[in-house]
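To illustrate this point, what follows is a protein record of this kind.

___
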Amino acid sequence: MLPKLPIPILIGILGVSVVVGLVLGGFFLKERWEPRIEYLDNYLPVDPEKTEFVFGGGGYLNEKCECRHMIYTSWSAKRFWVIIENFSEQLQVLDGNKTIEAIPYVLQEGNLPEERCIWLVFTIVMPNQTGTYEVNLTIRLYSELFFSREYKWKYILTADIFVPKSFHEG
């Protein structure tokens, strides 16, 4: 026959069991339900632990450069925000034909379509002086539950002078 335990000890054992169950269950749920970016562009897989991306590029003075990405998310992602956090003051950044003046600027937000992808498009007008410039974005994904995930993207752009080659150069 089992010995009878006092009520406070039984409540303590039950409480510890519930807390341990919630912690372990929370880790399992987070791994399963936390939204994440799975692929970029032409199915380039993304490391699940990676949350920062750096893109290099360049253009010529005063040139318009269009930034385009197809971002595929996990099945648990339901909503998203794309925010331009800041950019070098010499750059002009466009959302369609509209110049972005105040930052942070919500570039896109809403429910993800059935395909679970974000079509990210914005334009950068390079300055009229040579140099290296930055645009910083944040992408936030939300699941139906209370989980979310944030990604930081940095574009590093170099403006250079266009020097056409003569007909005789190779």
The mean pLDDT is 85. Residues 1-33 form one domain. The CA atoms of residues 140 and 150 lie 4 Å apart. The longest helix spans residues 7-33.
